[in-house]
Amino acid sequence: MPRKPLASRKQRGQALIFITVMLAVVLLSLVTMYSVGQLATAKMKLQNTADAAAYSGALTEARDYNFSAYANRAMVANQVAVSQIVGLTSWARNYNNSFNGEFSAIPRIFAKLSPLGAMWSVPFKILGKVAKSFQNVMDKVAPLMVKGLDYLIDALSDGSYAYHLATVVNLVQTVDDVVKANDPDAEVSLSPAEIAFAALHAADWYKFTKRFDPTLTGTTGSADSAQGGSSDRFANVTQFASNDEFAKFRSYPWITPSLIDPTRLIPYNEGTMLMLAYHSGGTELKTGGNLNKKAWTALDATGLFVIVMIWIPVFGVPVPIPIPLILPMGHGAAQAYSGSSANLQPQNNFNHDAGKAYGSAYVNPFTAVPAAIQLAEGPGKGLDTNAGLKKYMDVSDRRSGSGHEDFDAPGLVIEVKKDSSKIPTSNQAPLNVGTGGGDLYLPDDTEQNQLRALSKAGAYFSRPKELWGRSDGKTEYGSLYNPYWQVHLLPNSIIEQASSILGEQLW
Amino acid sequence: MVARRTTCRLPRGQAMTEFVIGAALFLIPVFLLIPILGKFIDMKAATVQAARYAAWERTVWYGGDDSSVDWESNVRTTETIRQQMQDKFTDPVLWKDRVGNSMLQSWGGDISNGKSPGTANDLLGFAVDVLDAIGPFTLEMDGLYSGTATLSAVNVKGFGAPLGDTSNLQTFDNFGLTFTDKDVILANAWNANGPEMVKKQVQGLLPTSILDNVAVKALLDVMAVVAPELATIEFGKIEPDIVPSDRLGGS
């Protein structure tokens, strides 16, 4: 009898206890599942934030490199334009001098020595007028144009440098803005390890590019020469590779005016048989001393080649004696320089030895005399005193060869963190479950009450052949001459990972 | 006593009844909540990853309708990316309730293009605007892309009614869960889309490029009859592939 009520008492609670315990277990697993789910998505989100921040930070550096590349390419093109204007001015002065200068009486005399003289003298007269007004225009316009171009070159040189320096601030602002935009509760982690990585990156970034002065003369042991002759690299791209034929070598015979008188082949028909003007000229970037890569000078000279036919009877037989004459016809020069000692010397011209200088004007027998006259007269007043190659940015790391096709700039390590209190797990309001301790204690238990995510990104130079192949089929390595800098995420090194895991515990 | 005997035999059935009622009212609904919660967690994770996908697409496709038209190869529109977000990240098989109805009510994605951060960009942006107005040189001064994903789950029905409470949260009948996430990234490194684009950009920084036209060329060709060297002038000459020789390797 006493057993039965006991048994019935036991039974009555059995299902209730079971259900209560089960309910508690299932509810706790639900709560745990909720918290784990929230933490997992928060971690994903934080990793996304870190990746976006690292990518965006590295992108500010890639933008700087590409901006420098556009600026460098534009500086080269504008230098080419300066050399064209200096060259065209010199050419116009020479042209006018050939028709209206101190030697212009000579061709008139020889033209009169031929019945076909009008063939020369008519175009000579017309072109003389054209030449005069053309020189007037160039003399007025050229200084303004060269000054304007040099201002633009200065703006490109200083602008790209200023933007490069501003990249430091730009990067910090960008990373901060991007982190906040992704997750207002997250922030860049500034643990001592991360500050050390940032400092290391800043040092690597600073070393990665350099501002070069193309007017410096590279001497052995100087920083300039250690960089592989930086002065000549920019000048090579400018004068040697990007300039046009007009600047390099503009030496041609002029077709009009010219005179050919075949009647001089008739015995005893004496006088001028041939008149031909031959022009030599070129534009040079001066080298050496104060002028080094700072002066563009141009020289043009014209010689007149005349054949006068004389017949003499030898035992009654008419024998023709053609007398060739080479006479000066005209000369002209122009310059844009930043010093006061610019000259037209055949020496010290970039990439051109004395034989090639100024379109070989000094060695060409037709033009040697007028060129020498112009040399003595000098290059005339400078079109602009602020001329020459200007400072430019380039990579200081010039490794090439296989393995450097994808040319990597230093990687940027970014760690972002978020307080656990900002992640809506069961521990946080409004639930506040599992925080009390005891058997139902379910803490989030994140390391140092934070979530942290680590990422790394860097700029790299890539010019894949299948997309933007070069016409010469060669592989191009990274430089600030071409804007092919992109950004990619990079794997974190074991040291970066370990520092992130240890976080602030390390200190 | 008799009644006691009867009641004494009854508890066996009572425990069963208790269990059935208790299970039906509490245990089973809570059990059923587990997969639902799991699916909600998956939806939230999908939203986070879809937002990332949307923003990162713009690191490759700079932006068609969202970006400057001067940049080529921007064929991927916001609409295309939105469709791809849906195709890649929604899971119509998993996201079903126990009856088989879809738990997904609506899905939305968007990409917007905001101004690049940084004081230096404010200053440069002014110069670029001026240059862009007079020539073909331009730089993307925006490029801060925000990819947004929004997922609305359907109301889960039939959980709250037994609790006898019709307020929103407890019945679940009007429990409209919406997950949303935004991923923001600065993209477009101003890199060129090939040498032709470099040339075009530099033309915008080269005043003499206005002389690089057919009329001037024709005039120079006519003048070359007098002086042949005039035909060798190349106004606005830009050589986008010239680099120092140490920057070139074998083919």
Can you walk through the features of this model?
The complex is a heterodimer of chains A (507) and B (251). Chain A is an alpha+beta fold and 507 residues long. In chain A, 47% of the residues lie in helices and 21% in strands. Chain A has helices spanning 3-100, 105-112, 118-182, 192-208, 223-226, 230-242, 245-248, 357-360, 368-377, 465-468, 494-502, and strands at residues 186-188, 209-212, 252-260, 271-285, 296-314, 317-336, 392-395, 407-419, 450-461, 475-476, 485-489. In chain A, the strands form three sheets. In chain A, strands 1-8-9-11 form a four-stranded antiparallel β-sheet, sandwiched between helices. In chain A, a hairpin with a 2-residue loop joins strand 5 and strand 6. The longest helix of chain A is centred in the first third of the chain and has 98 residues, at 3-100. Mean pLDDT of chain A is 89; it is low at 220-229. Chain B has seven helices and four strands; from the N terminus they run αααβαβαβααβ. Chain B is of the alpha+beta class and 251 residues long. A three-stranded antiparallel β-sheet of chain B has the order 1-2-3. Chain B starts with a helix and ends with a strand. In chain B, helix 2 packs antiparallel against helix 3.
CA-CA gap between termini of chain B: 107 Å
Number of helices of chain B: 7
Distance between the termini of chain A: 72 Å
Report the radius of gyration of chain A as a whole number of Å: 40 Å
User: Helix proportion of residues of chain B, in percent?
Assistant: 40-55%
Lateral strand order in the biggest sheet of chain A: 1-8-9-11
Strand content of chain A: 15-25%
Q: Return the string of H and E elements of chain A.
A: HHHEHEHHHEEEEHHEEEHEEH
Structural class by secondary-structure content of chain B: alpha+beta
Structural class of chain A: alpha+beta
The overall average pLDDT of chain A, rounded, is 89
Biggest sheet descriptor of chain B = 3 strands, antiparallel
